[in-house]
Automatic annotation (TrEMBL):
Reaction(s) catalysed (UniProt annotation): 5-phospho-beta-D-ribosylamine + L-glutamate + diphosphate = 5-phospho-alpha-D-ribose 1-diphosphate + L-glutamine + H2O
Binding-site residues for [4Fe-4S] cluster, renumbered to this chain: 262, 408, 466, 469
Name of the molecule in the record: Amidophosphoribosyltransferase
Residues annotated to bind Mg(2+): 309, 371-372
Any one GO molecular function term: amidophosphoribosyltransferase activity
Organism: Caenorhabditis briggsae
Family: In the C-terminal section; belongs to the purine/pyrimidine phosphoribosyltransferase family.
EC number from the UniProt entry: 2.4.2.14
One Pfam match: GATase_6
UniProt xrefs under CDD domains: GPATase_N, PRTases_typeI
Active-site residue list: 2
Amino acid sequence: MCGIFGIVAAGKCDNLNILAANGLASLQHRGTESSGLVGSDGVTRDHVEIIKGHGLVRDVITEDNISKMDGQSIIIGHNRYSTAGKKKSGINCVQPFVVYTAMGTVAIAHNGELVDAKQKRTEVLHEGVGLSTDTDSELIAQMIAKAIALNVKCKYGQDIGDITRELAVTMSALNMSYSLLVMTFDRLYAIRDPFGNRPLCVGTVISKDGSPQAYIASSESCALPANAKLDFEVRPGEIVELSADGIKSVWQMKPNTPLAMCIFEYVYFARNDSEIEGQQVQTVREECGKTMALEDDIEADIVGNVPDSSLSAAIGYASQSGITYEPVLHRNSYVGRSFIQPNDEMRQNAIKIKFGVLKKKVQNQRIVLVDDSIVRGNTMRTLVKMLRDAGAKEVHLRIASPPVKFPCFMGINIPTSQELIAAQKSIPEICEYVGADSVRYLSVDGLVSSVQKGIERTTNFSPGHCTACLTGKYPVPINI
Ligand code: SF4
């Protein structure tokens, strides 16, 4: 999972660089390893401005360097969460990637992971193209550069950065998964793979007089500024062009695959205030909580949650079951990354620094404790013990997603089967391990119906979601 953001000035737009930095900061939850911005002034074919670095957006894009983007009319940005490519590698792995092609500079920002990256890499290397990183995103950049070179005759005398045809050729040669932003000197393309695996939307920033100020493409709608409207979500297999003249769909791949939007965008990744497939993510999470309550029959006094992301599911569970919601844990938001702890006692202490129990709320209570997922089980084990030590009578753990048992090859780092508690233990064994009175997960059917309920109401295309990490059924054959 990564965050991609691009913006094009509709005319004169003095604060394009600030809008770009703010947009990227709003997508921080999608990647925290590195950030980058690449800008074009809209007229110079062979020059871009670049700001890149490791760390959070606020550390990489600063008051000192943001002025580098002054005068740019198109800017694209990327927050990295590495799945392909070395995590700690040098600045050359930080996106957006810039390649110098036969028609000028092209920059790309990629969210997703190519399932056949190994094979594609071999192909590209055997064509004599040298690669400077081990990332699949650079492969895509090189494939676009090659498509441009093969079509270069058509480009002579053409004074615009239109590469729609070359992008369509590249898409036809790519497998899933990708949402892409591709910038030439005078335009920006927003592209989604035919499975629609990762989200991507476009919007318009409106100036005070009501005219368009800028056009935006973003992984999520939460990154649109307050004075912007969400225009639409890029369709699976579509290329959308954003330029000073506006937003237009320029190519649509013939649909030949069932859709496979990542269902975990709803469960965990996307921000609550984003809209995906026409529905608010928060509403879907609440729906998951309601469905979980419908599948459950436990008697309890209160519903609580592990803060923060499972709050919506807990509210949904409470409203459906009629059991009162009460906050039971406080999360310390000032604790950063926890260090690897050498023993159980130290590990428990680290979790206790992160969470505090609201004792008065939990004493003598039978608690339904909602979380959105359980990976290794260590944190949950400590939290259950903390609730019991604080006087909870019973703790019934409810997970608002089905057990994660299989790896993801489409852009999400899921721990290995050896580390995944659901892949190693049965539900009674998990219950015993975490010390709960009972454990229940939302069913796969329950998750899919909660996610698809709102889509059927709001749009008229047939929804489809990837559930491979839950079911082992991958949208495409995987050759590891
Ligand atoms: S395997 Fe899981 S995390 Fe990966 S794309 Fe599919 S649903 Fe999303």
